[in-house]
User: Fold these one by one.
Assistant:
Number 1:
Amino acid sequence: MAVYTDVSDDDLEAFLKRYDLGSVTAFKGIAEGVENSNFLLHTEKGRYILTLFEKRVKAEDLPFFVGLMQHYAAKGLACPRPVTDQHDQALGELCGRPALIVSFLNGVSLRRPQAHHCARLGQALAEFHLAGQDYALQRPNSLTLKDWPDLFNKIGARANSFSSGLSEMIGKELAYLKDNWPHGLPEGIIHADLFPDNVFFLKDRLSGFIDFYFACHDILLYDLAICMNAWCFEPDNAFNITKAQNLFQAYQNIRPLQELEKQSLPVLARAGALRFLLTRLYDWFATPDQALVQRKDPSEYLKKLQFHQSVNHFQDYGLLL
Amino acid sequence: MAVYTDVSDDDLEAFLKRYDLGSVTAFKGIAEGVENSNFLLHTEKGRYILTLFEKRVKAEDLPFFVGLMQHYAAKGLACPRPVTDQHDQALGELCGRPALIVSFLNGVSLRRPQAHHCARLGQALAEFHLAGQDYALQRPNSLTLKDWPDLFNKIGARANSFSSGLSEMIGKELAYLKDNWPHGLPEGIIHADLFPDNVFFLKDRLSGFIDFYFACHDILLYDLAICMNAWCFEPDNAFNITKAQNLFQAYQNIRPLQELEKQSLPVLARAGALRFLLTRLYDWFATPDQALVQRKDPSEYLKKLQFHQSVNHFQDYGLLL
């Protein structure tokens, strides 16, 4: 959590000339999102978040992300709405970086979501999946099966220095997922990073999703598997089947899962766990010990992967026939 | 600039039970202040800043700081106003740290203040100095003449690794300041860290001071000297006499300086420069290169000190007879 780019009052004032937001009443760097620089921006017209995109987000992907938020917001879904300038452009440039102003979304992210929060999540996720069906732009997932061998090679032998035998285990898992990858499942726009950090609540009401910068076109069920991994395990990594039942039931109230999707849940749960195990391992070795950015522990996703490896049937996740 | 302590929604909710602020609508870590953890807190009742005091601020000093903000706010001066709980207590505890909620102060800090901003600063500083005269609590300055030899010893020979001959120069300067320290000047509560970061403006109006956690009882003119050093030099470290004239004139419109104060400006300008040279040098060697906290460059204050060493008379600073 850090603000990477320092924006001066002069830079900001020059940038805001393009918008009809009135004069600035407050401007502060905020610790939200790990990949970009985010600022709280209060003006005479209201409250906003200003994001400067740092290098990890590709500039050519930005129209996809911005258009997606506009698409959802136009349909009344709860997410930040991009603010356009006098020429109807949402994306601008500030301090040499692509920059975007979005509306301020009320809500607080939960550290320890409860079972009823998982139901709210399931419902909202299904609504986003349906709302994304007619989104015109395309963006393939750049962190899926085809991309993992490369990431695994970059981590290399260091995996074993993290945990003995881990390298062999990941190699076998990659082979298993390649052989068992499901085909013919419903696809569409997925959020792909819907951790509790990225979901806001106002008391028990889900007030919106944020941080769409991993969104892409992929298997819809994969998004649900990522959510199950992120929301339905306890701090000791025990699986909480009540939370998963709530998640799936609320999701299916909006978009019932097909039989083939249900059958594919165990393999996509493994896939979702491996994806975060790999990126966390990579970041673990890429981040200096002394850095103030808190590294996320890869072992959490190693344990989740091991749990999924022991599961044989989707009913073990609380998903009903 | 970083958020050091992570506060969960559960911790926050439990903490806020003591207050009458309604439920939380937003909560985000903000990059404000280097020493403490600061959070933006929006509730049904309004906008606030929550501060957790990390170890650099001494717990026993907190009643002084909090009482001072209450004292200023009660007199209508522009600064954050501490929010009290149902038992009329401002200081609480959160995540094992002393915690304080203050009102949200509108305004933006300036990267490059202009001459007219220095006039606003001078006026507000004099008003704060006068308003502090009847503040009941005491806190001696812990970063003044008596404390510098110790700090200098901790830096030791590394000063010369920063700049050749620096150690000898600082030793001589410490001796000079000890021999020439002014006595009998008006004293009172000073802010002691009134850099542009800590002064908010709304357009050209000064909207308030923040970050009173170096405030203490000391020579009032020393505060003015610190402001001159921080506000009246250009990015290339050239002294801008117009800015200093504006600062002093506006200050004197509210509190005219005594003859002895004017005579003491050159020595206190040197003292103010040495204080920040020493702390920046100390932090320079104490902060790892890779840390995301941006180290402040000691050479800026070395150049300012060298400038002041060449000044003979207060009129050279634009201060009139």
Note: The mean pLDDT of chain B is 94.
Number 2:
Amino acid sequence: VPEAEPSGQTVGQIGEDPLVADVISRYPGAGWLTVGPGDDAAVLDLAGHFPGPLVVSTDTLVEGQDFRKDWSTARDVGVKTAAQNFADIAAMGGRPHTLLISLTTPVDLPAAWARELADGLAAESGRAGAVVAGGDLSAGTELSITGTALGTLSAPHAVLRSGARPGDIVAIAGISGRSAGGWALLLAGHGLLGEAPLQAALARLVDDHRRPRPPYRSGPEAALAGATAMIDTSDGLVRDAERIAHASGVVLDLDPAALQPDADLLAAADLLGEPDPANWVLTGGEDHALLATFPPEATLPPSFRRIGRVLASGSASAVAPAGAESGSGVLLAGKPIIGPGGWRHFA
Amino acid sequence: VPEAEPSGQTVGQIGEDPLVADVISRYPGAGWLTVGPGDDAAVLDLAGHFPGPLVVSTDTLVEGQDFRKDWSTARDVGVKTAAQNFADIAAMGGRPHTLLISLTTPVDLPAAWARELADGLAAESGRAGAVVAGGDLSAGTELSITGTALGTLSAPHAVLRSGARPGDIVAIAGISGRSAGGWALLLAGHGLLGEAPLQAALARLVDDHRRPRPPYRSGPEAALAGATAMIDTSDGLVRDAERIAHASGVVLDLDPAALQPDADLLAAADLLGEPDPANWVLTGGEDHALLATFPPEATLPPSFRRIGRVLASGSASAVAPAGAESGSGVLLAGKPIIGPGGWRHFA
């Protein structure tokens, strides 16, 4: 608990350079990290450790929008920041190895919060086989954390959103809807920090919301298995399936039988009086699963399960956005999905 | 002028995906950009274009702290964001080639501002020989922009802050104090957008504040010339010289004769009634010059000018921070500097 820390100092009281030195000390090194955090920039020997095309992505988490300090510990936010960034690398078929972090914070943030954030970043980086190579600290009125993830392709080519072809299999590795279920529990007050332990099922959902665990290895596995398209389901299954559909000019027809809420989600829906927990599965964001398409003859990696098929464009009545092929979109059992929702940042 | 744009739409009215598509269209491609913005991550073929160790750094600019929308155009802010990030790459001896951008913005920001920001990012990237490879867009209450710059070392080794040795020459490439002079003019109301044209000298200072022009090529040139230490002067000459001094366990003795305010700064000081414009030169931040040390026998690259020498630790009376060698610090003509100031984010 940050507030109980003996020193109890804020970021502003400790000051930039001492806080940065403290945070840096929490990050382990790695063979490819020739120069780690603390200088003007980090230096990486990738040729010696990760030969191949470099994959890079950046993602920001904003307090209130992407996390709440009363729902998530600083360590949780660190895990989530790293996971969200590394998932984008995996979604190209890349193996993540390096993370950069820029923290913008009010000066009255407890310094312990910043340290625990670093612990979470280091922990999830470790799970992904990556390290934190550097960062930045800025004063602002709003707490936000920007990560930049670097990785290297294992397969000769990246897996784009635009390669899905009619006849392909639609498959997913990882969870869908569980983060949304956990979020709904927290919103209803059934998962607040410090409350009595929740039933195990509900606690697992809240954990999945607080600390996503993207299946990083499934990304390179999918690429090597011949995946034709792939995306990280950060904004919800249907929303991200639409992105593949529009970029590829095809229709993704999802199979409702393969997208049934699991027992934990059913328990949460029962508790909360949610009539249709399948909405969590279809539209809930922040699961950071990997949604991919494979040629019909491909052998799916064991972590992927089949959830639909790719049809030619024109099979959907949905209106495609400007620039996308007309008639591309997402169907559920061959029928349009009414009000797919999903997490649209500015909608 | 964003507000005069015919459509006049805000970021929130346009929506995330259309705005991202519009911004992306403003970024040119490059041979090393195998997959550009718009997918989960960008893919870079660096081995084929920039073989050598990768250099990476990240930096955030926050409205109010690092820029003001009434003092700088969106294009200025784009230039500054790119410059600040690329300068960190140059300060290691690297050549910048790639930039990632994460924009966090209130939904009522004019969409034209975001587009002009992209134009500034693209322009300064072009000046540096780099491209924008990807980004992220988030909603928040505070406007901030995080850049992550990637570059490649030209010399076999990076130039760290920690390599300065007694006897070395202290030298600088780029300007010092001019950004602070321009900032003081803006603060006094002598450089507001829309006012009558300033005298040329003052306008040049304001321009240097709004759109820093780091001497990117001087970084690799210094590395190849044998520079023993180097830093980007983002926080002021003395403050950043202290960082080299403490990291190297030495004293940097600066020569006041080499650090006289130029004619533009003298004119600004005269106008503003500033008694000691040398303070701008010594403590003003955001010039993004390259401060380096060279062995006494080195031939300085033409863009560097000598401003001091390196002495053994113990020559300074300044108290070094925890972890730094006692007696390391910065002197001016052999004497301690009283109240060096400089830009300390949380001081």
Note: Chain A touches chain B through 76 residues (CB under 8 Å).
